[in-house]
Structure formats: structure tokens, C-alpha cells
Amino acid sequence: MRVSPDHLIAKKRSVASEIDRVLMRCTDISVALMAMVILAIVIIPIAVGIALDHPGKIMVTQTRCGFLGKPFRIWKFRSTPSTQSSPVRMAWFLQILAKTHLDKLPMFWNVLMGDMTLVGPRSPSVDEVEHYSIKDWQALDIKPGISGEWDAISKDCYQSSSSFNC
Question: What b/e string do you get for 90-104 counting C-beta neighbours within 10 Å, with b at 16 or more?
């Protein structure tokens, strides 16, 4: 299912913007490949740590909306306990993953697949996009990123998908 409103119109791209797009994609692929090779030293112990600290799946996926509202699956290390029973305290290792954003390392795979870029807007969930106004849809004109302005702002300031309260 592709989520997109009727008001989205294909835009003509100039030769310069096509060159920029290709260069950006080459940069994304190069950096993501290097990061995955270098970070394998960290990724493997994290996966083992998650498995030992709290049984369950090591990685989780979420359906998010990407460029022009196209749904894709985002990969992350699990950073919450797998049991959903009563308020369970998050295991110490999972807390560290969440605080340091190391749970996002598998997103480099999404960059390689072309669903995301290194720096860009936050990728909204399908549920969020269903409630988007016409103005909010403009954020989907850009490929979502692993990091961006939204990541630099404290989570305490986050109010909704389209505004910040800082």
C-alpha cells in the first residue's frame, strides 16, 4: 500500500539536481558500507548483549513512510524488553542502547537499500502520515535520514509530528 495524497505532483528536476541526487546517493552508499564494516566490531557484541541480557528478538522492524510517502521497513536493535507484561523495568543494557542511539546502527542497512539517507527528516509512521495536513506532506518530499535536526532536539521538547515545543 502506497500512502500518498492527490495533491502531490511530480516535479521537473534540473540536470544539476539530478547530479546532486546521484552524488548524494553515492556518498550514502560509501559511508553506509564503511560504517557497516567498521561498526561490525560493535554490532556483533551488541547483538550478543541483547540476546544475553533479555531473551527475545534481537532486531525489530517498524513500518515507516519514506520519500513521497512510500512505506518501508526500518531496522533497529530492540531497546525495550520483549515482554509486555506489567511495567517491566528496562534492562540496563537495553537502556544504554536507547540513550546512546546505538539501537539505530542497523539503519545503515536502510541507507544501503535506498530507503533512507544519512541526514534528513525523521521518518514518520504510517499512522502519523494518515493525519498529515497538506503542509506536513512537504516533509515527505525529502528522503528520511538516520540523523537530522529532529535528532538534535531533546525528546522532551517533541510535541507532535509537525511541531516542536522548546
Answer: ebeebebbbeeebbb
